[in-house]
C-alpha cells in the first residue's frame, strides 16, 4: 500500500449481527470514515470542497474482501490511501486491521467520480490536484 492515513473506530454493538460479527455493510461506512480522514490529513476538509467548490466525490464502484471477522468492542485501524487518480476520477485503497492482534480484517477499494452538486461529472478543481497526484499505481 502507498503512504496512507490512519484512523481508528471501535465496533459498536449495533454494528454486529446475530452471530456477533460485524455486518458487512459497515465496512463501507468505515471506508468513508477513512476517506474523510485521509483528506483531512492531506490538508483539506472534504466538507469545504463541497461547499466552496461545488465538488463531490461520488462512489461509482466499491469492493471489499473480508479476511477475518471483527466483533463488538474491537478497535479497528483504517488505513486509507489514494491509489490512482485522473482528471475526473480517483481510486482509494483500504486496509482494516484489528489494533490489538494486528490481524488484517479486510481490504477494499472504491472508485469515485468528481461531480458537481447536481451529480454531473466534472474535472477536479486545480487547487486539489496536488492531493490526488495522477496515476499513483
Number of helical segments? 2
Strand order of the largest sheet: 1-3-4-5-2
Low-confidence stretches: none
What is the rounded distance between the termini?
Answer: 10 Å
Mean pLDDT: 94
State the CATH topology: Thiol Ester Dehydrase, Chain A
> How much helical structure, as a percent, in the residues?
10-25%
Based on secondary structure, the structural category is alpha+beta
Count of domain modules: 1
Largest sheet: 5 strands, antiparallel
State the name of the first-level CATH class. Answer: Alpha Beta
String of helices and strands: EHHEEEE
The outline comes out as elongated
What's the alpha carbon Rg, rounded to whole Å? Answer: 16 Å
- What is the CATH homologous superfamily assignment? Hotdog Thioesterase
Explain what you see.
With 137 residues, this protein is an alpha+beta fold. The chain has a single domain (5-128), classed as Roll (Thiol Ester Dehydrase, Chain A). The protein is built from 2 helices and 5 strands, in the order βααββββ. The chain has helices at residues 26-42, 46-53, and strands at 5-10, 56-66, 75-85, 89-98, 104-115. Strands 1-3-4-5-2 form a 5-stranded antiparallel sheet. β4 and β5 form a beta hairpin. The longest helix has 17 residues, at 26-42. The mean pLDDT is 94.
Amino acid at each position: 500500500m502507498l503512504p496512507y492515513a490512519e484512523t481508528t473506530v471501535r465496533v459498536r454493538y449495533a454494528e454486529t449481527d446475530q452471530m456477533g460479527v460485524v455486518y458487512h455493510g459497515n465496512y463501507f461506512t468505515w471506508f468513508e470514515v477513512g476517506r474523510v480522514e485521509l483528506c483531512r490529513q492531506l490538508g483539506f476538509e472534504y466538507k469545504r470542497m463541497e461547499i466552496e467548490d461545488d465538488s463531490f466525490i461520488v462512489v461509482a464502484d466499491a469492493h471489499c474482501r473480508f479476511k477475518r471477522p471483527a466483533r463488538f468492542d474491537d478497535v479497528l485501524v483504517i488505513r486509507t490511501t489514494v491509489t490512482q487518480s485522473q482528471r475526473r476520477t480517483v481510486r482509494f485503497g483500504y486496509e482494516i486491521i484489528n489494533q490489538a492482534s494486528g490481524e488484517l480484517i479486510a481490504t477494499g477499494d472504491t472508485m469515485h467520480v468528481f461531480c458537481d452538486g447536481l451529480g454531473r461529472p466534472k474535472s477536479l478543481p486545480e487547487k486539489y490536484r496536488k492531493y490526488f497526484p495522477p496515476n499513483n499505481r
